[in-house]
Amino acid sequence: MSAVEAHLLCLALVVVDLAARAWRIQLIVRGLGRRITLRDSLVLNAFGDAACALTPLRIGGEPARLAGLLRSGVPAPAAFVAISLEVLAAWPVIIVATGWLFWRYAPAWWLVAGPDLAATAVSSWPWVVLVGLASIVAWRYARRIASPAVRQLQRPIRRAMVYWRRMPRWQLVATVPLTFLNLATRVAILPVLAMTMPSPPPLGALAVGSFALLYSQLVLPTPAGAGAVELGFLGGAAGDLGKTEGWLLLAWRCYTSGIGVLLGVLLAARIYGWPALRHLARRWSDAH
Q1: Taking the mean position of all CA atoms in its chain, how far away is CA 56?
Q2: Which end of the chain is more exposed for a tag (fewer CB within 10 A), N or C?
């Protein structure tokens, strides 16, 4: 596959992912008796993507998406339930996909990636220790920030149960293929980029490595798993990517995080204005 074809396909995967997630939240909100436009769905997800990538433990993602729903005119309890239902409906799909992917390809992946990862851990142990310490510090910081927010949500949760009971179960089931599409398009980006190599690693190893690098960010405390993800990528988590691994990492980060950050920040600036964003950043900095 040529580089141009690979990048065009990656852009198409990003667009499909954005559309699938927009339709998913739109479907859930409609099940709660409210309506939002496709454009508003895209905007609120862009807010969430940017906040997830820029905050420790992705703690800014769901509040940013809640803000997007409130901006669309969805009442706060319904918005909270919509986000909660989306997460609850998505996790079984992610768990099943994880189980199948690792059952099918994990042994072959370990044969390809295991030796390089072990050698990287031994030769780069100071960086491993540094990333580990930075992750612990970021985790403690993020936990301290999140604790007051959890306490403040207790009352809205009780009010939100009214909307929770209204949600038709069939609409939650209808989100399953959209969640699978979201997962598949994101995991496919790294294998597509690797297809530009003369001798890419086996597809199974690429898929497992791509999945691990993406979804480890859900538990890594640094923003977008910064540091740990790069170390794993360059250490061979997806196999030997040769001399082009630096450029592949840059392109992969661009498609999986960079576009979301850029889109979210630009939309927020257009809607709220740059002064409002700078004021928000100063308040966040002063508070934490």
Answers
A1: 13
A2: C
| DSSP one-letter string for 25-70 | HHHHHHHTT----HHHHHHHHHHHHHHHHHSGGGTTHHHHHHHHHH
pTM, full prediction: 0.84
Helix orientation angle between 76-123 and 3-31, rounded to the nearest 10 degrees = 150
The model's confidence at residue 17, banded by pLDDT at 50, 70 and 90, is: very high
For the stretch 252-264, pLDDT in tens is 999 999 999 999 9
Beta strands in 100-252 (DSSP E): none
Report the candidate in 256, 278, 231, 249 with the shortest Cα–Cα distance to residue 120.
Answer: 231
Q: Are 183 and 94 a contacting pair, CB within 8 Å?
A: yes
Structure tokens at 178: 């959209």
